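Q: Second attempt. The first request was missing the SMILES, so the protein and flavin-adenine dinucleotide are both included now.
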Amino acid sequence: MAIVGAGFTGLWTAYYLAEAAPHLRIAVLEAEVAGYGASGRNGGWCSALFPASMASLAALAGRPAAIAQHRSMQASVDEVARVAASEGIDAQVAKGGTIVLARSPAQLSRARHEVAEARTWDRDESDVRLLGRDAARRILNATGTLGGIYTPDCAALHPARLVRGLAEAVERRGVHLFEATPATSIGPRLVRTPHGTVRADHVVRATEGYTPRLAGHARTVVPVYSLVIATEPLAPEVWAEIGLGRRETFSDHRHLIIYGQRTADDRLVFGGRGAPYHFGSRVRPSYDRDERVFARLYATLLELFPVLRGTAVSHAWGGPLGIPRDWCASVGLDRATGLGWAGGYVGDGVSTTNLAGRTLRDLILGDDTELTRLPWVGHRSPMWEPEPLRWLGINAGLRTMGLADAEEALTGRPSIVARVVAPLLG
Ligand SMILES: Cc1cc2nc3c(=O)[nH]c(=O)nc-3n(C[C@H](O)[C@H](O)[C@H](O)COP(=O)(O)OP(=O)(O)OC[C@H]3O[C@@H](n4cnc5c(N)ncnc54)[C@H](O)[C@@H]3O)c2cc1C
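A: Got both inputs this time. The predicted holo structure:
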């Protein structure tokens, strides 16, 4: 077995394969160090979110399959926590759920719509519920809160601790992890690296946002950057004002995504999209940092929680996530070539990678299971457009979402820009 990429996808796959088939010889090849990619730098939401909607999953494989995918995502949140505990990984996991605030009438109408839509997919009050103003503010006291949505299916965790701990766990199980070993080409039963060639019955591509660098994959996913800041540890009286007593993760219903968590050491970690997409799907370490985006994140944080005025930002970072053309993550194995893959998680990979790892185990061992019958298995997303269309479309989309939020902040009504322009961008 050869696995390219030592993020969560590659490591979960190695973990479950080594557990189920200890006789397998498994090599994980990593260009940098284990956890170098999005897995070591994300916002730490281990959630039941899947990037494609229930309706699009149902269109792929029918309603029961869409519901099964959601249930598998819920189970994955607990599975991540279970393995972290059983492997002695101190990933600082706290399953406090998620609150998504509604901070304008337009956001409130989206929240209501989302809960009504969830009910049509057999998702009851125990799965997702609408909160009134007071109930929402008891969890998270942000300015302008009119209500929100709460779901218990999310754990806050420390992603770098989890991914490094997982790398150690797979090595304990006899997996060979080769860091500083970039795959220069991936083909059927063969991976080439500058240090030598690996021959294997199965080769798994687990390279997510870095995938466009591989020959033949320039348009498989686009790398879109998400950036994050972390405050210094906050005093108990500040937390008494803000809330998040059970380390609930949080967001609101704006168009351009924001996300936050209270860490185990009482910092506020807060991230968002909005950094530009780079022409030709380029990925560079310098893109991880964008001072304008960091400043915007800090300003948004102060707008949400004025009590944070004067609080220092101790860390700031970012990284590329992978977006497929139809926003539907997928996992699969081509039996003819032995090539497997998983990815396209958009911003929902912390738990989905775990489901991918268990699914790749079953596919590679040839087991027909509930997991191998889920609708995302074997799904092939269309290719992205060639440049310059890709650059124009993605950056126009990012701009539109930013404008739509500004419009809603001004009018309080659902954005006309979002309704008219977004469908034109596809
Ligand atoms: C800033 C940020 C915040 C996020 N927040 C969240 C969140 O809160 N919740 C959530 O669920 N998801 C979040 N995500 C998404 C989530 O982190 C990813 O979906 C997930 O980590 C993907 O894991 P992966 O193993 O597939 O990819 P990665 O972790 O990116 O790993 C890919 C690995 O492959 C290696 N690699 C690439 N090319 C080669 C090659 N040719 N040879 C060898 N190795 C190679 C890379 O060095 C890298 O280590 C976030 C992402 C970012 C960037």
